[in-house]
Amino acid sequence: MKVLCVLYPDPLTGYPPAYVRDALPRLTAYPDGMSLPTPSAVDFTPGELLGCVSGGLGLRSYLDEQGHEFVVTSDKDGEDSVFERELPDADVVISQPFWPAYLSAERIAKAKKLKLALTAGIGSDHVDLEAAIQRGITVAEETYSNSISVAEHAVMQLLCLVRNFVSSHEWVRNGGWNIADAVSRAYDIEGMDVGVIAAGRIGRAVLKRLKPFDVNLHYMNRHRLPEDVERELGLTYHPDVRSLVRSVDAVSVHAPLQPETYHLFDDELLATMRRGSYIVNTARAEIMVRDAVVRALKSGRLAGYAGDVWYPQPPAPSHPWRTMPHNAMTPHVSGSTLSAQARYAAGTREILEDFFAGRPIRDEYLIVDGGKLAGTGAHAYTTSGAASPGSTGA
């Protein structure tokens, strides 16, 4: 079969990089007891850079030995891209949330042989699920591989905003020692009201990691968490987003992108938030109205915005989130640490092994199973093919 893989470009300094650590901590299971990826073997050393083109998710030797054609590229956009040229006779497409190859209905129509659309990581909104269902294409993703990675990043970005870390660091880098300028926007997070939108695996991990900071924790989720979980973490439940955002000083967003969450944070919703609020968004960029966020930062309604997600990806150099005031943006790296890459590369191989052998792909990884919605795993989907709010396995 032909496997077409779209990964982000190699480091500017060349591949492989000089690694700063010699090994990764060894994990035996995910926090909820789900087993780690179980491929028959791996052809890489955990801790290597696997998510770029030369890294190839550690799949080159395996696929070559099995007699499959393996095409890896970072050129994914436009009619003359490598992805567009190679797609028509591809049997499998592998992509990432960090450098997504957008499988639109038009592209799926061109991909006459496509049988499997596989996400190396979490989040498959770059695939038109309706078109995949109509064509009988299996859509799968490496669930939970980088959930904790994203949760850690979200907590880090929240602290960076509240403590005004980015500006403070820039004073030092630029040769200054401007203490008054740095601390004039710096606060303690202790005692603040902090809310999480969507308490799936990532959202719950964020809540768990914020508890030791002695903040007042709030959450919104379609399905309320068990009483013992609320009691353990000291959670206040909100039935809708509007109730939550007006009750907190900071919001961390972990909802999937779907019709109900598309452009959820518009001028009207942002205006209901406390003056000087913070937003961290490691979910999907289009949950926000792009320019509404810029306006809220300029007016002071928001004291800071930190995100790891953009639309499209990569964004244009002129994208206003690159230069808007009081931002702590990153280029969708939260789920692609070297630790996470070892897991999502191994999980990608596990899915491929099962697919090539005609074995069932484990439920946790399935979204669309051969044209049928898969609701038995970590994802729950409505009949329209969109994920239910707060139900994401991420």
UniProtKB/TrEMBL annotation:
Binding-site list for NAD(+): 147, 201-202, 282, 308, 332-335
Major subcellular site: cytoplasm
Residues annotated as binding substrate: 122, 146
Positions of the D-isomer specific 2-hydroxyacid dehydrogenase catalytic domain: 61-362
EC number: 1.17.1.9
Domain D-isomer specific 2-hydroxyacid dehydrogenase NAD-binding: 156-334
Site (Important for catalytic activity): 284, 332
Function: Catalyzes the NAD(+)-dependent oxidation of formate to carbon dioxide. Formate oxidation is the final step in the methanol oxidation pathway in methylotrophic microorganisms. Has a role in the detoxification of exogenous formate in non-methylotrophic organisms.
Family: Belongs to the D-isomer specific 2-hydroxyacid dehydrogenase family. FDH subfamily.
Quaternary context: Homodimer.
Protein name per its UniProtKB record: Formate dehydrogenase
The organism of origin for this protein: Streptomyces canarius
